[in-house]
């Protein structure tokens, strides 16, 4: 079991509160969808389809969910509308399981990978640097030695923000002058991490999408340079997305998965939006596991994603 993967009562309360806006929105829409109906029929399914799409689950994913429910209705012959939330929970949880999104129980650090290198990507403003800081805090709290790399050398604010997080958490931040080669920063970061026997390295990268070719080249160069120090680095390329942007998050995921080999997702700012359904759709559309979700501003409000707890919180 991962060192911060357990799901406590406090974690559940934080998740419930963080998803409150999405839950209220979804429930009010579902209530209207089934108004006056006693069983799940074609009209209810049509209304439910609209509910899911307008909740930012996405068209393709919504159609898959509706097909699953149709199969349940056909098999069970009669399904009451009072059972709809239970069926939604079961089918969406199963959908997330098929997409390799886990129950949050296997995010411990591999013993044979030290330091474990995570390269964090995403556009500016999604909470990328904050996510890195919160992850560093969780790892440090668990007794792991963490090193941060400020490879977003194009924004002074990004470097300064990472330095503040390093001071707050108590871990070193490797940086260079503004405008320096990001790959050079990554190289120095891994060199330092190896020399001090660090357990985890978190590399911040520039969040520019205006020129995808340049972005692709830059991220590829960073990965190649890191391999000179740690041959199998990076072990994880984590894409951070702002859940409150809804459909725009899909487009960002599309562009970054084209630019580099994204292996995990962190979806932030779910507490301030009614668009939490985006977690379901993005996981399904890109077949990339969601590892972390942000459901508040506190350090402990970045949670390991637990698919069953997420679905239960949303549809309980």
Largest sheet: 8 strands, mixed
Give the strand order of the largest sheet, numbering strands 1, 2, ... along the chain.
3-2-4-1-5-6-7-8
CA-atom Rg in angstroms: 21 Å
User: How widely separated are the two ends?
Assistant: 26 Å
Uncertain parts: 1-6
Strand content: 5-15%
Structural class: alpha/beta
Tell me the total number of β-strands.
8
Tally the helices: what do you get? Answer: 12
How do the helices and strands follow one another from N- to C-terminus? HHHHHEHEHEHEHEHEHEEH
Broad shape = elongated
Tell me which oligomeric state these chains represent.
single chain
What's the mean pLDDT score?
A: 87
Helicity level: 40-55%
Task: Give a description of the structure.
With 316 residues, the chain is an alpha/beta fold. Helices cover 51% and strands 13% of the residues. It has 12 helices and 8 strands. It has an 8-stranded mixed beta sheet with strand order 3-2-4-1-5-6-7-8, with helices on both faces. The two termini are 26 Å apart.
